[in-house]
Specification:
Blueprint: E1 3-8, H1 14-23, E2 27-32, H2 37-43, E3 47-50, E4 76-79, H3 81-89, E5 93-109, E6 123-135, E7 140-145, E8 153-156, E9 161-164, H4 176-187, H5 196-211, E10 215-220, H6 224-237, E11 241-247, H7 255-266, E12 271-275, H8 277-283, H9 290-312, E13 315-319, H10 324-330, E14 356-358, H11 366-375, H12 380-383, H13 403-422, E15 431-445, E16 448-461, E17 469-470, H14 475-488, E18 492-497
Parallel strand pairs: 1-2, 1-3, 3-4, 4-9, 10-11, 10-13, 11-12, 13-14, 16-18
Antiparallel strand pairs: 5-6, 5-7, 7-8, 8-9, 15-16, 16-17
Helix pairs in contact: 5-6, 5-11, 6-11, 13-14
The chain binds xanthosine-5'-monophosphate.
Length: 510
């Protein structure tokens, strides 16, 4: 009951809505826009939020919710496209605006009995829409306007419906969090109480219920997400969990041994180590397309898990550390967002997978996963480590992945990390890594012509990996790294610095 369901109509802000609700202490989950009403009812939410979306509600093929969502007796808040859906489906009228409204506006409040209790007049809101509500549906009143938008907010009192044309979830809407709080607490009667502690307790209970007496296998990648997944599942099912840590030959230098120690000694997980670098490299031979690399690696991991599962006997579940940004970027809900990359643990899963999946972190952002890790007693140093992609160095070696090229990249990467730590930069950055480019360039060393490989350095700052800024590193620092790489790594004669933000680039190069 004490949770909010967000129906996703394809807005780039959907995940922010869910997150802002959780920040207010109420658990929230995102569901596809067309989730049937009985399924919603089964979730028993205390409130429903209809997200924004890029389409127009009156167009053919526009994503529409099950109309029965308005008959469940559950308070609904529509945001932007969500507001327009409400107007369109409940008897009002939505039409295209003469001009798109995009950016800041001052909110003029007309009625303070509902959503706008204690909200200041003329406070700044963020608008981004091309359609407008021309006629309110019966039973609704107008509660706010802006200079350019006559219908900026509407409410109905019987079943409690609220619609806002602006985006309360984005930071540019100054009183957005207060407006959301009014909806959740005053109007929907929810109580704040969700925290990482209750998340752990609920997920543990859920995993225990789903798994029953069966066995689970979980792949550890060396990152925080898969570790937290394993620790949660271990809490739920104890010895019926076996973790598998695969040396795919695509890890950072020395990473396999260090991590194996950490898992076994400090965290007392049951971990089977599998040395499979030969198999991965063999399957990657001749593969240059990024998506094919990711899929090949995903497939190989699954083959290994299946083999280990056979050895253990009757394993029904595979637990994975998928987190929200992986889901949104690789397997978008039906709708307007495109596949950016197949994260090996999401989009790269083969058809006919023999396991049932358990993904307890699927709704969380990275910093939320880190908070769960802390709750589970993982030490700070491990938690603060930079993310490392499942396909490992393969997506940082452009072109073919060979043992020799992995070794070159590992060396360059080790030097970079070494210098980053020495300069005290590690904890100020989201990720730091070297990339090996598929080109060679001419150089001169000790009077001799060289024709060797190029390494690019990537240092980025980010809050959640969804967007990122390149780090304006000190030139002397860059020079130190460049000199060391060219001097110490055989086969590299040039180092370049990546100065692209995400978007338009991504953090990893493939
Ligand atoms: P991109 O490159 O898409 O990456 O901007 C965003 C964040 O996700 C990490 N990443 C991955 N993590 N499996 C993972 O577990 C993957 O396949 C994968 N691809 C990218 C990336 O390192 C960055 O932090």
């Amino acid at each position: 009951m004490n949770k909010v369901l967000v129906l996703d109509f394809g807005s780039q802000y959907t995940q922010l809505i869910a997150r802002k609700v959780r920040e207010l202490g109420v658990y929230s989950e995102i569901f596809p826009f067309d989730t049937p009403h009985f399924r919603i009812k089964k979730e028993n939410p205390g409130a429903i939020i209809l997200s924004g979306g890029p389409q127009s509600v009156y167009e053919d093929g526009a994503p529409l919710p099950d109309p029965a969502v308005f008959n469940l007796g559950i308070p609904v808040l529509g945001i932007c496209y969500g507001l327009q859906l409400m107007a369109h489906l409940l008897g009002g009228k939505v039409v295209p605006s003469a001009k798109r409204e995009y950016g800041f506006a001052g909110l003029r409040i007309l009625d303070r009995r509902g959503l706008f209790k204690r909200i200041k007049d003329r406070s700044q809101v963020w608008m981004s829409h091309g359609d407008r509500v021309e006629k309110l549906p019966p039973g609704f009143i107008l509660t706010a306007r802006t200079m350019n938008t006559k219908v900026a907010a509407i409410e109905a009192g019987g079943p409690r419906f609220f619609g806002v044309q602006f985006h309360p979830e984005v930071i540019h809407t100054r009183q957005g969090q207060k407006i959301l709080a009014n909806f959740l607490f005053d109007q929907a009667g929810l109580k704040p109480g969700w925290s990482m502690k209750s998340f752990v307790a609920n997920k543990t209970a859920e995993v225990r219920r789903v798994v029953g007496k069966e066995k689970v296998i979980c792949g550890l990648s060396g990152g925080v997400d898969s570790l937290v997944t394993s620790l949660l599942v271990q809490r739920a099912v104890g010895k019926r969990l076996t973790c598998v840590f695969v040396d795919n030959g695509l890890l950072r230098k020395g990473q396999y041994e260090e991590l194996m120690n950490e898992f076994r000694r400090k965290l007392s997980l049951r971990v089977v180590g599998v040395e499979a670098s030969g198999l991965f490299l063999e399957r990657l031979r001749g593969v240059v397309s990024p998506e094919q690399k990711r899929k090949t690696i995903g497939r190989t991991f699954i083959d290994i898990f299946e083999e280990e599962a056979r050895r253990i006997g009757r394993v029904k579940f595979l637990a994975q550390g998928t987190i929200y940004p992986d889901v949104i970027e690789s397997a978008p809900v039906r709708g307007p967002s495109a596949t950016i990359k197949s994260h090996h643990n999401v989009g790269g899963l083969p058809r006919g997978l023999r396991f049932q999946l358990i993904e307890p972190l699927k709704e969380l952002f990275k910093d939320e996963v880190r908070a769960v890790a802390e709750e589970l007693g993982v030490d700070r140093e491990f938690i603060a480590q930079h993310p490392f992609p499942g396909p490992g160095l393969a997506v940082r070696i452009l072109g073919e992945v060979t043992r020799q090229r992995v070794a070159v990249l590992q060396e360059a990467d080790r030097i970079l990390l070494d210098e980053v730590r020495r300069a005290g930069l590690y904890h100020r950055l989201w990720q730091v890594f070297a990339v090996l480019l598929p080109v060679r360039s001419v150089g001169v060393m000790g009077d001799k012509r060289t024709y060797e490989q190029v390494v690019s350095l990537r240092l980025v700052q980010s809050v959640d990996g969804m967007t990122a800024n390149w780090y304006a590193a000190d030139p002397q620092f860059l020079e130190r790294v460049s000199t060391r790489i060219v001097n110490e790594v055989e086969g590299v004669n040039r180092v370049v610095y990546d100065i692209t933000t995400k978007p338009p680039a991504t953090i990893e190069w493939e």
